[in-house]
Amino acid sequence: MPSTPLANGVTPPLCGGERTEVTASSTVADDKPGVSMMEQLVPEITTHALSYLDYPSLCRLSMTNSLMRKAANDDNAWKALYHKDFTMEQDGITPVNGWKAYYATTRAIISVNTEFFSIIRDRALQAMARLWLDSDYVKCIHASGELFSGYNEVMQSWQLCFNWEQGFDFQVHTVRTRILTDMAWVTMKAYLNVDGGPFLITNVFEFHNGRWHMVHHHSSVMLIDDQQVVVH
What we know:
Layout: E1 10-11, E2 20-21, H1 24-30, H2 37-40, H3 43-50, H4 55-61, H5 66-72, H6 75-85, H7 98-122, H8 125-131, E3 139-141, E4 147-149, H9 151-164, E5 171-180, E6 183-191, E7 199-208, E8 211-221
Parallel strand pairs: 3-8
Antiparallel strand pairs: 1-2, 3-4, 5-6, 6-7, 7-8
Helix pairs in contact: 6-7, 7-8
């Protein structure tokens, strides 16, 4: 890391090296007139530097000035952030609207998916009804293996779950998303306790009227020591 010049213009020695004089003339000579230091960096270095920022920091950086906005909107920077925050699985795709939009949509999908588990924990039937798309093609397969088809059947199944069972506070891990324009699916493992096996869950969402709605839920259970616990 470069040493900071002292007040008298002398740079402290690096690792025992000799002191070097830093003058105004030499600084000007190394810089391009009218060009900032950020503009002089090659794109690869800029992207690498921005990859250390998190989502809020990258958004704040884009609001500082036009140069920072251009740097913070770089598609490679958002691709790197997506891989850091979510998954490397989709390295080969090319999002239609760029990685920034894909990142934002992924955050929205994960937020809705998290809301789904909060609804189960709180046994909030009205919230579950708002989450699901009111359509005859929606499907729900609970861990019992029973299939419910159509909005009314699906809501009746959740009403039975909420009436007869306690709320469950799932610990969700290994969340993976995939988005195709107005449809997205999420796969994950959900645990009720550290000793039991995970529930393998797939949720599918569709985008309607400015909101993401659930259209499919499938839960199955892994066998641990030949024992199986069926929940919701």
